[in-house]
Amino acid sequence: MEVIPVGFVEPEEEWEEETKLIHGGEYRDDQVGSIVTPIFVSVIYRYPEGNIYGYKYSRNSSPTIEALEKKVAYVEKGKDAVAFSSGMAAISSMLISMLRPGDKLVTTRDIYGTSYEMMTKLLGGFGIKVDEKAIGEKVLERIDKNTKVVFVETISNPLLIVPPIDEIAKVAEEVGAKLIVDNTFATPINFLPLEKGAYAVVHSASKYLAGHNDVLGGVMASNDTNYTIAVRNTRRLLGGIPDPQQVYFIIRGMKTLHVRVERQNKTALEIAKFLSEHPKVEKVHYPCLPDHPSYPIAKRLLKGCGGVVSFEVKGNGMDAIAVMKKVRVIQRTASLGGVESIITHPATMTHHTVPDDVRRELGIKDNLLRLSVGLESVQDLIEDLDRALKAI
Ligand code: PLP
Predict the structure, then answer these.
(1) Is 303 labeled as catalytic in the residue annotation?
(2) Where is the signal peptide, in residue numbers (predicted)?
(3) % of residues, the chain, pLDDT over 90
(4) 177 and 300 share a domain?
(5) Ligand 1 atom, smallest distance to 91 CA
(6) Burial class (CB within 10 angstroms; exposed 0-12, middle 13-18, buried 19+) of 328
(7) Which one of the listed residues 112, 116, 208, 227 is annotated catalytic?
């Protein structure tokens, strides 16, 4: 491994993803000998003579942030990456960097609710035409020669629909549109959008990348450095750069991403199978189960289906809420991707602002629960769910 006397570690060609996650981009200093990237808190950097990296003011960039960006670029196989204070700061800055009044953005109705609201209300209010009628792969039918940007998620929430990203990328390219993929649910361990033709990839780093429910963050990557420069400039103008302390937690979390996600894939599949055979469960939604509508696409595109499993409890919404209230190991709240398992009732929690008719159209029933599998023992999680289900 080559360690530059003072600087960022550039991965060797043949390094596997796990090795890149741990060493890639780390800021190492031969004089002090630090192995772990320091938290550089300086807001100002010496100039006009400058420094070799050109830092000036930390709203533009600073070394801890750049270390994260390099790591993300290596892992997502992009030429460059840009870090943000949250997933929403990343998504909004990416779209603002590309779209102007009159441009058409095509997305789907089942994307993350706040992304949907930002696109339809905020961008729509600025005169951007947002086409959000499609669900899942129906997005293919909405792309036309007027489309400038297509935005999809690798795995939708909460029904875990996997759109055919490779086909969408092809259709987008044919009409000259740019495809952005929110890869938060899949993670780069299970899917690499840029390798399948996406123009850019984005994450809420608050979820799997950081992985411990203790930090917010967002990251994007692309192979078009003109675009990443434009996104970085938008970040400078809007001020969405993350704090170095926050970024340190994301860097630290990413070092264990591989082992966490592999284990979460395995535990989620085991739980999905257990739930499928449970007498108190009506239906299970997990794209690695053969009866899920996205199973063929998931098999073709994903290495694993991630740590989120949704299931419909036999009965009504009150029965689902009763199950959610009875689990003891699994925590009742709304996020996902961390080491703690989390259970959510979408109809009254994450999707309560979605009008009833739209929720029904999306297939989000009142008896649906969403489970984000953490790193507890699979046996303890199964027993927790079994006990809660048997009690209704
Ligand atoms: N994208 C997806 C798929 C999400 O689930 C979320 C948050 O839940 C976001 C984006 C927004 O990220 P953040 O909460 O970090 O702003």
Answers:
(1) no
(2) none
(3) 91
(4) no
(5) 10
(6) exposed
(7) 112
Catalytic residue among 207, 232, 235, 370: 207
CB of 350 sitting under 6 A from ligand 1: no
For residue 326, tell me if it sits in a domain: yes
| pLDDT at 3 > cutoff 90 | no
In a domain, 177, yes or no: yes
Question: Does the beta carbon of 304 lie inside 6 Å of ligand 1?
Answer: no
Tell me, yes or no, whether 183 and 40 share the same domain.
yes
CB 202 within 8 A of CB 87: yes
> Which of 199, 233, 254 is the last residue before a domain boundary?
254
The CATH number given to whatever domain includes residue 132 is: 3.40.640.10
Does residue 298 fall inside a structural domain? Answer: yes
DSSP 3-state assignment of 7? strand
Check whether 50 has a pLDDT greater than 80: no
Residue 280 lies in a domain: yes
Tell me which residue range forms the domain holding 196.
Answer: 7-254
Query: What is the C-alpha to C-alpha distance for residues 155 and 294, in angstroms, rounded to an integer?
Result: 10
Percent of the chain with pLDDT over 70: 98
Residues 100 and 194 in one domain: yes
Buried b (16+ CB within 10 A) or exposed e, 355-376: eeeebeebebbbbbbbbbbbbe
pLDDT at 5: 57
pTM recorded for the entire structure? 0.96
